[in-house]
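Reply to dn_fold:

You asked what the input looked like. This is it:
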Amino acid sequence: MFDLFSADKWLKLWTFKDTFIMGLSNTVKMSIFALIISLILGIIFGLMATSGKKFLEGISRVYVELIQNTPLILQLCFLYYGLAFSGKAIGIIETGIISLGVYHGAYMAEVVRAGIGAISKGQFEAAESQGFGYIGKMYHIILPQSIKIILPPMVNQVVNLIKNTSCLYIIGGADLISMTYSFVTGASTGGAYAPAYLVCGLLFFIICFPLSTMASLWEKSLKMRDLKTVDVGDTINEGMVTK
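and this is what came back:
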């Protein structure tokens, strides 16, 4: 803990700041590409789960349950070492992108499924009565209404995805946590444990806190808007009854 107040340790940290910049860059890069994969999978399997077709719903359920009920670290190791021993190894960053994308895709799928499920059946029936097919119904009627329900928990999943990049440490990754560990254990850089991990934590906080705050404020705003809508509706109904 005394390292935290050591000028020499902080100077060493500043001298090798490129290590942390590289780790942060890799973490952000993995997060962006993994997020794209997770969104694509989330939308696909979320729509499958609400398609009304047992076969598609079954596939979606198997994917979600299998991924959510096994640890991310296990999935990372399976993909990285499994492919390595089969002679088809891929890079650590690529492993992280695929594993994080597939893992959080299962959670995104549940967010999409829940968002669509929160829309009243009357909206589905109204869309069908207008002659919309499944895709048209979802694109024009259901998804625009479910966006406000989906987005807050989806942002929370983005935060979790960014933090879960730290799991790449288990396979010797190049993420921020792994680069920090390499710094504090390096032959020429070792020793500055407290400053290094403090800076690492602050970098994660700088990225994640604004996102989690935005999700929280967004959710509160939507709830307040819904309450105002209900109040206006009740006022109109009361006026009609009075007349």
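The CA atoms of residues 127 and 136 lie 9 Å apart.
Hope that clears it up.
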